[in-house]
């Protein structure tokens, strides 16, 4: 099984993902301590919500991946990342109700006051 292409690809993907996460945590800790002037304890507390969500979502993602086809899980996670990234990049906050999400999903150009 170790010689198959899907298994090798999954291993490379897992190593790349964990390396990316480790780099993100390292650079975020440096930012919080050097730019925001937080001490080590407070920088760790700022990163605690991500650790808690990782802890809670890990078993859920395992059950989800076992119960659904792989493309369904990848498409769902990709769509969630896309939506969160769009809201973050646009500076908008997600709406509180589903009908608002449908009506406010279209990007709006800024209006100049000249």
From TrEMBL:
Region span, Disordered: 92-114
UniProt feature, compositional bias: Low complexity: 98-114
Entry keyword set: Membrane, Transmembrane, Transmembrane helix
Keyword match Transmembrane helix: yes
Domain of life where this protein originates: Bacteria
Segments passing through the bilayer: 12-32, 44-64, 70-89
Keyword Transmembrane helix found: yes
Protein name: EamA domain-containing protein
Species for this entry: Actinomadura keratinilytica
């Amino acid at each position: 099984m170790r010689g198959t292409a899907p298994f090798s690809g999954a291993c490379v993907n897992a190593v790349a993902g964990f390396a990316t996460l480790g780099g993100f945590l390292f650079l975020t800790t440096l930012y919080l301590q050097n730019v925001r002037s937080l001490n080590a304890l407070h920088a760790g507390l700022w990163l605690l919500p991500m650790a808690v969500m990782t802890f809670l979502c890990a078993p859920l993602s395992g059950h989800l991946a076992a119960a659904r086809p792989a493309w369904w899980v990848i498409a769902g996670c990709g769509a969630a990342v896309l939506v969160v990234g769009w809201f973050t990049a646009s500076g908008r906050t997600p709406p509180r109700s589903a009908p608002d999400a449908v009506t406010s999903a279209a990007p709006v150009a800024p209006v100049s006051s000249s």
